[in-house]
């Protein structure tokens, strides 16, 4: 059985995040970009960590943008105190989508497209509800 645990742009699960699109980065951008995303299993499925610990999300880069340019948080207000590049801890078990926030510090980024970015999770397993 393949995992349904995924990242979405919308709470209706109609727009999966297949790549992080950093639209809006330009030389005149003064403030960081903030984006609400949703993470979790398909309806009727429970996702849980394999070790009983919180499910952890982290930004991984194989390109020119360092993970420290990103902040992850459970609320938009928490982005200001989130540690740049740090993992985000979710519950150890998810039965539905959870809203998360992603902030990108654009100060060190050049205008254009930046590839090789993903949001990865710790190891999970799933069961039907």
The radius of gyration over CA amounts to 15 Å
**How many beta strands in the DSSP annotation?**
10
Give the low-pLDDT segments. Answer: none
Arithmetic mean of pLDDT: 88
Strand order of the largest sheet: 1-2-8-5
Strand content: 35-45%
Description:
With 129 residues, the chain is an all-beta fold. It is built from no helices and ten strands.
Topology summary:
Blueprint: E1 6-8, E2 33-40, E3 45-49, E4 56-61, E5 70-73, E6 88-89, E7 93-94, E8 98-104, E9 117-121, E10 124-128
Antiparallel strand pairs: 1-2, 2-8, 3-7, 3-10, 4-6, 4-9, 5-8
Describe the structure concisely for a colleague.
The chain is mainly β and 129 residues long.
